[in-house]
Amino acid sequence: SSLTCQVTGGIFSFHLVVHLIASCIDPADFNVRLMKNYSQPMPIFDRSKHAHVIQNQFCHLCKVTVNKKTKHCISCNKCVSGFDHHCKWINNCVGSRNYW
Question: Which entry of 24, 62, 73, 87 is annotated as an active-site residue?
């Protein structure tokens, strides 16, 4: 029973550390991390000017050039390289920087 508590505690600790790391890593595209000021209000996307948020590797909301595998997450209001999904459990996007 003591060994079971130690193993359970070890697994819980490992999970807690990985959870904190995944939720704290900014998954945004490199250019977005360099240029974007997250304190500014989210701009409104105007479909009359552009058909898509990202066209020709340029995000019209973040106003930066991004790579081919980048998508803009409306929940986070940032472009995420290798975007997989927005995770409600870690309150962060899952992308190439924190997918592991």
Answer: 87
Answer yes or no: 87 catalytic: yes
- Beta-carbon count within 10 A of 39 CB: 5
Report, in angstroms and rounded to the nearest whole number, the Rg of the chain calculated over CA atoms.
18
Q: What is the pTM of this model?
A: 0.70
Q: For residue 94, what are the contacts with CB-CB under 8 A and spacing of at least 6?
A: 22, 27, 83, 84, 85, 86, 87
Question: At 100, which amino acid appears?
Answer: W
Which H or E run includes 19?
Answer: helix 2-24
Q: How many CA atoms lie within 13 A of 50 on its CB side?
A: 14
Tens of pLDDT, residues 26-82 = 888 888 888 766 667 767 778 888 888 999 999 988 888 998 999 998 888 889 999
Query: 17-38: per-residue pLDDT in tens?
Result: 988 888 888 888 888 888 766 6
